[in-house]
Amino acid sequence: MTDIIDKNIQNILANIPAEEPARQYYFIEKCRDLVKEEQKRLGRPLSCCVVTFGCQMNAKDSEKLTGILREIGYQPQEGEEADLVIYNTCTVRDNANQRVYGRLGYLHALKKKNPRMRIGLCGCMMQEPSVIEKIRKSYRFVDLIFGTHNIFRLAELLYRCMAGNDMVIDIWEGTEEIVEDLPALRKFPFKSGVNIMYGCNNFCSYCIVPYVRGRERSRNPEEILEEIRRLAADGVVEVMLLGQNVNSYGKTLEYPITFAQLLREVEKIDGIQRIRFMTSHPKDLSDELIQVMKESEKICRHLHLPLQSGSSRILKLMNRKYDKEQYLALAGKIQREIPEISLTTDIIVGFPGETEEDFLETMDVVQKVQYDSAFTFIYSKRTGTPAASMENQVPENVVKERFDRLLKEVQSIAASRCGRDCGTVQTALVEGVDEKQEGMVTGRLSNNLMVHFQGSSDLIGTIVPVRLTEAKGFYYMGEMTVSDGQASPERPGQDQI
Ligand code: 5AD
Ligand code: SF4
Question: 3-state DSSP helix/strand/coil percent for the chain, to nearest 5?
Fold first, then answer.
């Protein structure tokens, strides 16, 4: 690696702090000087754009990347006609990879118009050696590549990139290190994701995540709580606790603590009015968690509980460690204990060897549980996972036909579920103005559905009571009500309604 480090950098090596995050703050300063010089030369500010592919974890990482870039002196923007563009990639299904390759063609065209433009790639897809090989060979215009374990190093890598001319590539196979406390730029001032753990140890046989995100590591509870306290002080009213499998949070800590215990602590933080979390694995979902949710005033009435398949035979092949009956019993228990809960799920169609009977088992669970919504996926073969080498891959036309049937069922159940709360008054966190209808705003209900109602932009970030007047299939129309003793919408910091 040293051979690609420019002489300039070698001269300053002696002064570089060894500890993180001090090291990155050092490189942020160094980059800032280079950005200033370039701005002077061009006579205009430099812009940057971070594009997120994939899940909430990636969205959170993108906020960290954007925060560092802003600190360096770039002006963040939405469009990709920028001086620095970073694609934060996903590789969970092959179509995610194809989208990135497709959009790289577009970036190449932009770079031809602005040769000073820099292009960076990071995230899950970059942890695959075959991807790096392909980019090295066929996408020479890319300037910077890094992976999932070292995103905190953006400033250092960007400095290397700006000071030299070669493609900078830095991919780590894994890490024990968790570096936080770097700048982040939140997309929404009033809500934020909070990482509570990284990686996954489950090795579901179809899934590439454990290979690209590494082993499970939990953050220290005190650090998490401190971050949430800071967010609350900064006007955040809703937090989403993030992890690939939040139900196994804390098991590997020096002083183990359960996810339910962590939730109890988050609940105590003043200013935080709503708590969400993502994602739960059914095998680890405890009675203690159900109890904490039931008693909580702040934990939202929404649980995402990935099913993947309703066939016990396929679940075994998937290495999910629960069967159809156990899943149904768990979903039933949750619905009994918390009747207003909204259950959502992920389902894969066409796993190797899936027969019509197996598929009908999935349909059966969907009908029994009555999900409020479900993400349905066509099985995608991921090289390196055990399922990729399984025989009996299901023919494309069969999968497509099953997928369509499942989607229809899921949508029709979701539409009927959506109507169930019509006429009730619920609290909604106003997230933005309705782009399509003037004078309207959009709010998110505790159960994660959206509601549109009359209001203006000064409501954004507040939690208000809304009467749900009409169900529209997967969202509601409503009208803001004024509850007893509540003359104005709630502001961050006030008590919950
Ligand atoms: N093919 C299709 N869907 C997949 N998922 C994960 N891996 C694959 C794959 N190889 C889905 C699972 C998971 C969601 C995030 O993505 O349903 O819960
Ligand atoms: Fe993938 Fe399974 Fe881990 Fe989820 S729990 S990230 S599906 S291996």
Answer: 40, 20, 40
Look at residues 130, 159, 127 and name the one whose alpha carbon lies nearest to residue 143.
159
Probe residue for ligand 2, chosen from 201, 245, 247, 375 as the CB with the greatest number of ligand atoms within 8 Å: 245
What contacts 168, CB < 8 A, 6 or more positions away? 4, 143, 144, 145, 157, 160, 161
Task: Pick the residue whose CA is nearest to atom 5 on ligand 2.
Answer: 202
- pLDDT by residue (tens digit) across 368-377? 999 999 999 9
Q: What is the pTM of this model?
A: 0.91
Write out pLDDT tens, residues 423-432.
999 999 999 9
**Gap from CA of 244 to ligand 2 centroid (Å):** 7
Residue 202 near ligand 1, beta carbon < 6 Å: no
Yes or no: say if 490 and 462 are a contact pair by the CB < 8 Å rule.
yes
Tokens 């919504």 identify what position? 373
Residue 20 to residues 3, 17, 31, 220, 285, Cα–Cα distance (Å): 24, 8, 17, 17, 35
Q: Identify residue 270 by its one-letter amino acid code.
A: D
Atom 2 in ligand 2: residue holding the nearest Cα: 204
Ligand 1 contact via 211 beta carbon (within 6 Å) = no
Give the list of residues 6+ apart from residue 447 with CB closer than 8 angstroms, or none.
300, 301, 302, 340, 341, 342, 372, 421
